[in-house]
Give the backbone structure.
Amino acid sequence: MSVNTIKKAKKLVQSGGVVKIEDDLFQIKSSSNPDHSYFVTSNTCECLGFKNFYKFHHGKGLKANCSHLEALRIFKQEHQP
Ligand SMILES: [Zn+2]
């Protein structure tokens, strides 16, 4: 996980870019285009970075991540009772 990804993720959470839709469905704004957003669950994201991760690291047993999944992780931590 790069520092840049975490920075982006924190910014998304702080700017209200994470919106809960259902129990495990969130809408998260794109950090490069605020008019665009992705539907994200706790382990999948629609964005290209997430899809490319599996293309590049397929079969290495790594879990894909992107700034949106990271933002969701931070969002959940902050909203825990
Ligand atoms: Zn993503």
